[in-house]
Amino acid sequence: MSDYRLVFWSISALWILAQTAAANDPPTESERLHQLFDREWQFRLAEDPLFATSVGVHDYDHLLPSDTPADLERRDQSWHGYLKELGAIDRSKLSAEDQINYEIFKEQLENQIAGYRFGAYQIPLNADSGFHSEVARLAQDMRLEGVQDYENYISRMRAFPRYVADEIALMRQGLARGMTLPKVVLQGIEVTMDTHIVGDPTKSVFYPPLENFPTTVPAGQHLRLRESGIAAIREGVVPGYRALRDFMVNEYIPGARSSLGGSELPDGREYYAQRIRHFTTLDLSAEEIHQIGLKEVERIQREMLQVIEQVGFKGSFREFLEFLRTDPRFYAKTPLELLKDAAYIAKRMDGKLPALFKTLPRLPYTVEPVPDHLAPKYTGGRYVGPSVGSTQPGIYWVNTYALNTRPLYNLEALTLHEAVPGHHLQTALARESNNLPNFRRYSYLSAFGEGWGLYCEWLGLEAGFYTDPYSNFGRLTYEMWRACRLVVDTGVHAKGWTRQQMMDFLASHTALSLHEVETETDRYISWPAQALAYKIGELKIKELRRRAEKALGSRFEVREFHDAVLLSGSVPLNVLEQQIDRFIQAKLANRPT
After folding, report:
1. Does 305 score more than 60 pLDDT?
2. Are 207 and 201 in contact, with CB atoms under 8 Å apart?
3. Parallel, antiparallel, or unpaired for β 381-384 and 394-398?
4. Which one of 369, 408, 478, 507 is most buried, by most CB atoms within 10 A?
5. How far apart (Å, rounded) are the C-alpha atoms in residues 236 and 91?
6. Can you give the pTM of this predicted structure?
7. In angstroms, rounded to a whole number, what is the distance separating the alpha carbons of residues 391 and 139?
8. Domain map of the chain by residue range?
């Protein structure tokens, strides 16, 4: 053998030995962490088939969740196991980014464990939506491209009565221990089921995919799939919604609690404190939040009075609100007019985005009315993201029900919050990020997301919106609305406020329609602490922007600041603060951000 070949084989042997030794080395703390993330992610997908579909994993598209007591106990044991594994990882040996991953993952596990401990699963719906309304979006959320996709769709429709039976069994557990929605917020909830109890399956919201098949489904399969789908609507969807309606009307509503506050639930004060921590991601007491709310209400009211003076209105604040609620000029005459106005506002903001953001998402969005089966008890608008990998856009829903309760002066603020630069831009960017673990790409933390949405309403001032003083009053009434939430949510769930007290406080401080005051009040009662996320999150984002502007002076660039806020996905507010501090230090040191 030549010296050259001897050297070559020696080097090769050493390389193989080095690789073998490396393969036998114990994993690093970072490797252990990400292996844990991957295993828990696969568990999460298998346990929630609807969630799996929403993130573009189609292995479970034929299934609906199974929520028997045995399933719930097994999940709880698994979450405890994952948390124990996480605790065995030395956090100090992780990179700064993985330390953030560690903390967010830990908080998610702890929230799941707390939800099981308090029995939150025994209330699988709220005043305007729930598990049953999620299933009603199967036609929009599922991949329907081939024959197997349609078979999966049909299987899910047929599984619906079993899914309903699981949830009814859990709600019966809640009835037995007082873990229910308050009776008063359930008035009219049957409309969210009645819409789906159809005599003619072709009138069902589940039918449209069976009418027009994509070209990827062979024509010879159309009749069979259509007939099978119609049978699934008749034998699965309709009986499932009928069973849920009968249970709600005959058993749940009569047996629901007459009390209102979360503190009246089993272990209620502890439960509400945990919900505050979950939705705000901060350690704040109910009393601290209540006082923050009162202070913000006072500040915003001063600004509202300035607008009233600007428009020359002669009368009291209460009379001005009545004028806004009753003057026809402030209301669309047709649903199409309202949708067109919303679409125009959204398109105008599209043109402003390059001046405000360095990074923009690829995913487009559209504007649609809130579906009829939800609209009567639904909020004024909401963003609905598509399933990953689907051919659907993001959707900005605008509620066209009861047009005399949907004022146009609120529409700019609503659009900037729900569409762009609010929820659509924020969630689309997170999903398109390739540098986040899956559990972060597809997570939504309310304090971050809703705080961002409210910040975006205010950002419209910089972008040239709200030139009409009535529209600016609408922006202020939306901000006041979120400040009032801090007061009324803590009021009802910690201080014993009545429903009428809540409605009176909202009606006397905002220009919301009285219909919306009522539907929003019921939402807060049925969803303890969720309403706190908006104002708490917005206050933190504004605080951090002021900090960056002060520290950087002429080096501050709003597009870079927005990237620093958004490109790490949805994070707890304390983590966001760390991110912005690092952004500031990097800019001061002339390092890339």
Report:
1. yes
2. yes
3. antiparallel
4. 478
5. 49
6. 0.89
7. 12
8. 29-118, 131-258, 271-538
